[in-house]
Amino acid sequence: MKNVKVLGTGCRNCETTAKLVAEIAAAKGVAIELEKVTDMAAILGYGVMSTPGVVVDGKLVHAGGVPDRKKIEGWLG
Question: Per-residue b/e over 33-48, b at no fewer than 16 CB within 10 Å?
């Protein structure tokens, strides 16, 4: 199971990113634990200055703007 964290304050782009990750994981049959991180100190702790950010298994893979489907599919293998 992959651990995926969407970092953001709950803006539209953050919500869209979380929804896309969940949809693509389900379509690919990949089990994920999806967590939304809204605490600014925690977000900054990952070095993210522009949200949404995405962390997969502890590694920052994206920051700023909604990632495209191909990127997300790549993260989920």
Answer: eeebbeeeeebeebeb
